[in-house]
Amino acid sequence: QLHLVESGGGLVQPGGSLRLSCEASGFSLDYYTIGWFRQAPGKKPEGVSCISSTGTSLYYADSVKGRFTISKDNAKNTVILQMNSLRPEDTAVYYCAAEVELLAPTVQSLCRSGATYRGQGTQVTVSS
Fold it and tell me: In this structure, what are the phi and psi dihedrals at residue 85, rounded to the nearest 5 degrees?
């Protein structure tokens, strides 16, 4: 069974940092495109950042470019989202989602269309 479990969310002041982690089990990220998405109350889900199976192709939403960094460790089957210079508008539930590479051949396609497999999410709140 495929599982994605996120951790690392919490409350942080504006300008602060958080590091989100997504651990996959039941499948290998070697064959999946994976990314981080977020959804704020009353808003549609947004693809924040996505990474290819090899880790060589990256996508960032304009709203987080220069502040967030995505990386993956295939040996640990884990994807990390380092979030710096956080703003109140970054407040949302963040979740990771993955799609088999054949169905999501580009990081742009995953981040714009979503994925079949997703975790439960972790709350990120940016507030003073």
Answer: 50, 50
Contact 39, 17 (CB under 8 A): no
DSSP-based three-state secondary structure for 55:
coil
Give the Cα separation of 8 and 66 in Å (integer). 20
> How many H-runs (helices) and E-runs (strands) does the chain carry?
1, 11
Tens of pLDDT along 66-77? 999 999 998 899
Phi, then psi, of 56 in degrees rounded to 5? -95, -15
What string of DSSP letters covers 75-115? TTTEEEEEE-S--GGG-EEEEEEEEETTT--SHHHHHHH--
pLDDT value at residue 50:
98
Q: Are 81 and 50 within 8 A, CB to CB?
A: no
